[in-house]
Amino acid sequence: MYRQRLYSLIEKDTEHSVPSLVYDWFMFVMIVISIVPLMFKTQIPLFVWFDRISVIAFIFDYFARWLTTDYKRPNRNRFFAFATYPFTFMAIIDLLSILPSLNMIGVSFKALRAIRLLKLLRILKFLRYSRRIQMLLNVFKKERSVLLTVFAIAIFYIFTTALIMFNVDQDKPNDDGTVVFETFFDAVYWATTSLTTVGYGDVYPVSDFGKMVSMLSSIFGIAIIALPSGVITAGYLDELKKLGKGKQNQEEETISSKEM
User: Fold this and answer.
1) Which of 116, 125, 204, 226 could pair with 130 in a Cys bridge, judged by C-beta atoms 3.0 to 4.6 Å apart?
2) Domain 140-259's class?
């Protein structure tokens, strides 16, 4: 009985569950105040209290989810659900967000606490955005073959242009006398920024042939980057049309039921 109530608290059981809503917003605040100290080099007493309060909330949340994991995964054996929960992805992230505050691992691992921001996606449910997010995920799922193909083309083009540039300008000196591409990774870095038409300017070709390759890379980059944008936009519009038809059908069913 108590575990069922606890599960209803940490997992939104209805569309308008006020206690669950309050709990999610409370955890959101805890996540925020736990990250604030990471934005400063110096630590003040207030940040210490932020860390203590947030880690207590994280510990409660971790064990509460572990205690009610059989409700979360009802299709699995109860013992198996309890035994495997600590090895699930979010449980590992939750644990790694707790251990730094207990001085059980290095301070540098506190940056992993930022991954807890993934739980902010739960808040989107209360803002009625979950349907839109589900629509976008459906677009990625339906168009995954096309998107993977475009991604493969981009990787192939980056590798090819990086290989060309590395062999053309690897011994060419900059104005300050340093070599343009000291390693192949520098060439890959240049090819990626050139493909995306960003071009930070810290690594750039100096030979005429290298500059020609750079221009072609930028031109093709615009086309390659535009492909997934068009696919996602078209897929999202299709999902919107389906949503509109679904609402229309529901309205027609409601009208017909009233007439009967």
Assistant:
1) 125
2) mainly alpha
